[in-house]
Amino acid sequence: MSKKACLYPGSFDPVTKGHLDLIRRACALYDTVYVGILYNPDKTGLFTPEERKTLLEKELEDLGNVKVVVWDGLTVDLMKKLRVKVALRGVRNSADVESETAMAWLNRTLYPEMETVFLPADAGLAHVSSSAVWQIASFGGDVSA
Ligand code: PNS
Questions:
Q1: Pocket of ligand 1 (CB under 6 A)
Q2: Backbone angles phi, psi at 62, to 5 degrees
């Protein structure tokens, strides 16, 4: 069981600069960073999981220690499959801390050996979300920043 690997689970629909910043910082902390594309029942899917994987891999191609995987089950089951005990999540504000803590409790109830590590979002990207990026793009706005 590697202690130097983590899983960063999310829906990444689409991947944002906030996600990419977090993955790059995680790659400096862990030997291997698995980026897991999972299903979030609270969100309507936009890109297919395979399209999200392609986008992520294109953005991360310069990193040697990141692997992108698609999974249609529970986060904890993917962690068990990958033999990873750390789940990484980014937090942008106090609302994120609250919801992410609830998810961390749920995941630890299902898999008591795991831990969730929170990384604060980059201050300059804390306002960025997939849904905002999608909404701006859908009205023809510029999402390059
Ligand atoms: O990027 P998101 O949408 O905030 O990521 C949420 C995600 C996909 C990590 C979460 O919905 C999830 O873990 N989905 C898989 C199903 C699961 O394990 N649910 C239990 C935790 S609430």
A1: 9-11, 38-40, 43, 74-75, 103, 106-107
A2: -80, -10
What are the tens digits of pLDDT across the range 63-91?
999 999 999 999 999 999 999 999 999 99
Residue 125 phi, psi dihedral angles, 5° rounding: -120, 5
Q: Which of 54, 48, 145, 129 is nearest to 35 (CA)?
A: 54
State yes or no: is 19 an active-site residue: yes
pTM, two decimal places: 0.95
Query: How many C-beta atoms surround the C-beta of residue 29 within 10 A?
Result: 13
Token pair 């960063």: residue:
8
Active site residue: 2, 3, 4, 43, which one? 43
**CA separation for the pair 48, 82 (Å, rounded):** 22
